[in-house]
Specification:
Elements: E1 2-4, E2 11-17, E3 20-26, E4 32-38, E5 46-47, H1 52-56, E6 76-79, E7 84-87, E8 90-91, H2 92-98, H3 101-109, H4 116-127, H5 137-141, H6 149-159, H7 173-199, H8 212-221, H9 232-244, H10 252-262, H11 267-278, H12 286-300, H13 303-311, H14 332-347, H15 354-368, H16 370-374, H17 382-392, H18 399-420
Antiparallel strand pairs: 1-2, 2-3, 3-4, 4-5, 6-7, 7-8
Helix pairs in contact: 2-9, 6-7, 6-11, 7-8, 7-18, 8-9, 9-14, 9-18, 10-11, 10-18, 11-18, 12-15, 12-17, 14-17
The protein binds carboxymethyl coenzyme *A.
Length: 448
Amino acid sequence: MQIHLNYHLKWIEVMSAKNNKIANLKLPNGSNIEFPIHSGTIGPDVIDVKKLYSESDHFTYDPGFTSTGSCKSKITYIDGEKGVLLHRGYKIEDLAENCDFLEVAYLLLNSDLPNPEQKKVFDNKITTHTMIHEQLSMFFRGFRRDAHAMAVMCGVVGALSAFYHDSTDITDPSQRLVASHRLVAKIPTIAAMAYKFSIGQPFIYPRNDLSYSENFLNMMFSVPAEKYEIDPILSKAMDKILILHADHEQNASTSTVRLAGSSGANPFACIAAGIASLWGPAHGGANEAVIHMLNEIQKNGNVYEFIKKAKDPNDPFRLMGFGHRVYKNYDPRATVMKKTADAVLGAVGKEDEPMFILARELEKIALEDDYFVTKKLYPNVDFYSGIILQAMGFPSSLFTVLFAVARTVGWVAQWNEMIEDSEQRIGRPRQLYIGEKQRAFTPLNKRN
Ligand code: CMC
């Protein structure tokens, strides 16, 4: 097999010698370097280029890491061509259909699904960490009421490290475990408090007699003055949404968490970094952007105009909720999400919601359009999630926060895996420098 690397590096020949696969790189100066090739349990092989710089004085160049593996991982596997997503070997569709969120959280943090006793112990661990230090609640009052909830999340989650000193020693496995449980347990409380503060309602304390999703809905939507009935269809849907967003391999925010953690930073600071990365519209901010886009289309009334804009290479507009770096097929999470949308909109009596009808129409047009077909652009997890969340009563500014609530367990699992990996070192990418060469300094009064 031959892989064309780039202009300077000519060719890499990949040879199979018995069980040891080797990649052979020929450099322009005629020297040859051999690299081991590693095989995972499934998925493409990887060429181990760790020694490239020390042996050849060259780096690899891969902006956006489209061809670069940054770690070994046992947590999540994606086959983007086939539209497959597995957590610890289990299909996401099976997990979303049969598990509650904490079962999947246990699976991500450990190597297998819990048995009933393990599940009971784990649920208990999480529910006994759901409250936050009372003084932390003062932090919310320091923000403007109209602050974006993700801005509040970055600040408050980062501040956890100022309150939970007894779980910031990353070299101590028992402290790492407590920090992991604290993060998973407290993140819904913090998210709900951010929302309550923004609308001027009192904070609602967590209730440990409720499931993870029920408790979150209760903290979000109940008020002390009235009894709040939790609709089981909505709490089930919330569980599915959380499960579908729980982990997704080495995406931007997860890689951010790993990179921040590689320096030895404490877990609360690392998760705050992940939240900041998730906020962007190309990542977790897409579900909010989908709703804004659908609103714009509704106002304008012409779907085809937006499709045309999305296809125009000179127009920065993109169809939000479409396309994915890894999936070149229907995102399996989007399939479950679409079904969940049907259930939730039915439960709240909004099956004829114009936005849902528009979303389905947009999806149909795009899936039949040559541009989207040839570029393999399919709906991703965010295309329908915003519609569901809106129907459940969440404001659009909170959608990315929901994503952060769900993804915290994935970040924590990946962070733990990194700390325990003896091969991991501080993350330090290199660059292709294209600036000025060294030059003589000119004093200020001699510069033109
Ligand atoms: N609408 C129109 N054209 C698109 C879209 C889109 N949504 N997505 C990609 N393209 C085009 C893009 O213009 C490019 O065309 P060309 O080759 O002619 O330059 C081609 O498809 C490849 O795009 P890319 O930007 O090189 O792909 P990427 O892997 O860097 O980006 C993406 C992936 C998700 C950032 C991108 O598809 C996008 O911006 N989608 C909309 C935002 C979105 O829905 N994000 C949520 C991702 S799923 C949630 C998560 O896991 O975080």
